[in-house]
Structures are given as C-alpha cells and as structure tokens.
Amino acid sequence: MNTSYMLISGFLVFFMQAGFAMLCAGSVRSKNVMNILIKNVLDACIGCMAYFCFGFAISYGTKDSSSFSGEFAGEGFFFLAKGDHDNAFSNWHTFFFQWAFTAAAATITSGAMAERTAFQAYIAYSIILSGFVYPVVVHWIWDTAGWLCNWKTDADKNPDLFNGVGMHDFAGSGVVHMTGGIAGLMGAAIVGPRTGRFDASGRPMAMPGHNAALVVLGTFILWVGWYGFNPGSVLAIHGTSAIDTARCAVTTTLAAASGGIGSMILNYSLYKVWDLVAVCNGVLAGLVSITAGCPVIEPYAAVIAGAGGAVILWATGKLLLKLKIDDPLEAFAVHGACGAWAVIFTGLFATERYVAQAYGAPWGTKPEYGIFYGGSGALLGNQILEVFMIFVWVGVTMGGFFFSMKVAGLLRSSPE
Question: In this structure, what are the phi and psi dihedrals at residue 22, rounded to the nearest 5 degrees?
C-alpha cells in the first residue's frame, strides 16, 4: 500500500509538468510558445538522465548497506548501480518519486528566463541543476545524514546535527521551490530583460501573455498535482500516516484558496481591476506557502500562510520591477520568495502535537515546534538558516554558471 501510494503521488507530481507547460505557454507571447514548450519537455527528459546518473546518488546515496553518508552530499548508487556491497539498488519507488520533484525544480527556473534565453542554455542548466545543485540541497534537509535533517533515528549516526535539532521543510518550500526560484532569479538577472520590457526611462512596459485560458488550465493542473506533492510527502498511507496525509490535503487546499482570494482583494484594492492572472499566481503562491508546514500547522494558520503568500508575491514582483529584473512568470516571487516565507512561517506556527505526529520525537526527546506555541526558538533559527544557506548555495553556483554562459555568448538568444 505504501509503495503504491508513493508511486501514485509521483505520477501526480510528474503531471505537474503539464501544468507548468500550460502556464508557461499561456504567459508568453504567441511567437515564443514553441520555444517554451520544447524547454518544458526537455526539462523532464534531460533532468531525468542527470538525476539518474548523479542526482539521486548525491541526494541519498551511501557507499554500502551499513554506512552513513556525509553531511554535505551522498556518495553512492551513481547510475542506480550497487556500491561496494552485495545489495543491488532496490528502492525504485523512492527514486521515481524524488525524480518527479527534481523535474519540478528545473521547470520553475525556466519560467523566469522565458522569451530571450538560448536553447543550449536551457539544456545546460537542466543538467547542472538536476544533477548537482538541487540534489545537494535535498541531501542537507531530507536525507537522514544531512546536517539539517530532522528525520533522525539514531543520534550516534549524526552527532553533529546543527543546533541539536533539524528543521521542518516537509514537502520542499525551500528544497524545491526556493532552489528553482533562486536559480531563476539569477538567470533572469544575468540574461537581462526582454527587448522592450523597460523603456528608455526604466519604466516597465506591459508584455501580457497571449492565452489566459492556458494560464487557468495550468493553474488547476498544478493545484491537483500539489496533492501528490504535499500529502505524498508523508511517504506512506497505512495506519496513522493516513491522518497526516489527510491533514496535508486540507491545509494545502485552504492555503491555495486563501492565496487566490488574497491576491484578488489586494489587486482590486490597489488597481480596481479583477486580475485573472494575479488570482492564478496567488493560488500558486498559497500552495508554495503551505508546502513546508502542511502537516504541522493548524487549519487557521494555513489560511494565514496562503494570504501572506499573496502579499509576498505582490511585494516581490514590485521589487523586481524596481530592480529592472524581468521575470515573465513571476517565478521567483511565487516560488523563491513565497518558499522562504513558508519555511520561516513553519518556525512560527508549527504545533507540538502535529510535529510529533508528522516527524516523531527523535531519539526519545520532545520535538521542536513553533515559537508562537511555546517553542524554544531553536527550530525557527534553523528555518532561517535554511533560507540563508539555500540563497547562498544556489545563488553562487547557478549565478556563476549563468555568468560563465553569458561571457561565452551562450546565454541569450539573438534578436533575430
């Protein structure tokens, strides 16, 4: 039952690629639809090969059946081959589920760079992000050997766990969404804005997408796929795990709804326009804002998280325009900024009871929980540390990569 549940959840997460494809296709101008769609298809294909060759090993690999990986990166099962022990790789459902998440992170990045990025740059960054940059973040936080992971079963295996506790990023607001969003931010800043996006005085000029129906379709597909993303991250459905799974589904739904409503109210209050695209992005911002804490917060807090995500989305979008950074799909605002908000929000609102249910009490001690419920603050400190480390790691690695591509003349498409 548990294996079947993980596979079905992986199918839903992978189906999110269709949602990203429709969202991207509807948000760009008609002349660039073919370019953005082939990028979406190849993100899945190339990302799969990179994760198969290197990514999974860096995320979760061990040298042998009895060893424990390093705190920075895994070190075994490259190409899903057995290590120096007699037990061949057999964790097939885990590989498939984790690859679906990898594909999502890679697709987030491309939306920020749409309509002016060279095709070869898409291919190159898919390999780097899926095969190395993203898997390192996964290992830190989701592998039991990672220095920020709180899924600990044996203190002796990792006595150097930072601050004595891990951090809560249940389904990847930081791991997946911040990674993809920050990579997109670096790419968008370095490749430069689309031709004509800003006038001579630096004022932004409107470049609306060509098909609102595709934007709505993509949004709903992503919303459905998120039920594999968040509830699926329980990794089991048997017994008490079903309670956590159902709670994740409820908090995910509430945050999405409040994000869409919050964005609608905010944009109408400011501009007196019922903005369809803003509502769709608000729904996505709400979904990102609940992904870190979906099993550990109360329903009312999920509403606050989603509505707060709508505000973060609007403010970040305005900031990027001030900085003259052109992000056609608001990928950094939705995924990067709201991902950081979600991670920190969890450090504030995680409840003791739900943390114990979702994560257990490591090593027989009481689990850490949010400071608004009487937590010590150690968890919040680790949540902030995760945000900082992902910004540094992804910003430096992907920023350096995109800059080198620009210097080589391989990053931006020619005007023709």
Answer: -65, -40
Gap between the Cα atoms of 209 and 277, Å rounded = 9
Tell me the whole-structure pTM to 2 decimals: 0.94
The percent of residues in the chain predicted with pLDDT above 90, rounded, is 79
pLDDT tens digits along 211-240: 999 999 999 999 999 999 999 999 999 887
- Taking the CB of residue 325, how many other CB atoms lie within 10 A of it? 17
Alpha helices, H only, 195-298: 212-229, 241-271, 276-291
Torsions phi, psi for 412 (to 5 deg): -110, 140
∠ CA 10-119-409, rounded to 5°: 135
The span from the CA of 170 to the CA of 93, in Å, is: 18
Q: What are the tens digits of pLDDT across the range 9-58?
A: 999 999 999 999 999 999 999 999 999 999 999 989 999 999 999 999 99
Q: Does the pLDDT at position 363 exceed 50?
A: no
- 215 vs 78 pLDDT, higher one: 215
End-to-end CA distance of the chain: 54
Cα atoms in the Cβ-side hemisphere of radius 13 Å centred on 220: 5
- Residue 156: pLDDT band (50, 70, 90) is very low
Count of residues in the chain: 416
Annotate 401-416 with b (16+ C-beta within 10 A) or e (fewer).
bbeebbeeeebbeeee
Which has more pLDDT, 125 or 89? 125
Residues 111/328, Cβ–Cβ less than 8 Å: yes
Q: Identify whether the C-beta of residue 64 lies closer than 8 Å to the C-beta of residue 25.
A: no
Nearest-angstrom CA–CA distance, 402 and 410? 9
Angle formed at CA 267 by CA 301 and CA 276, multiple of 5 degrees: 95
Check: CB of residue 394 under 8 Å from CB of residue 138: no
Q: What backbone torsions phi and psi does residue 244 show, to the nearest 5 degrees?
A: -60, -40
Contact (Cβ atoms closer than 8 angstroms) between residue 20 and residue 107: yes
Closest C-alpha among 52, 206, 174 to residue 108: 174
Signed CA dihedral, 109, 115, 116, 120: sign only: positive
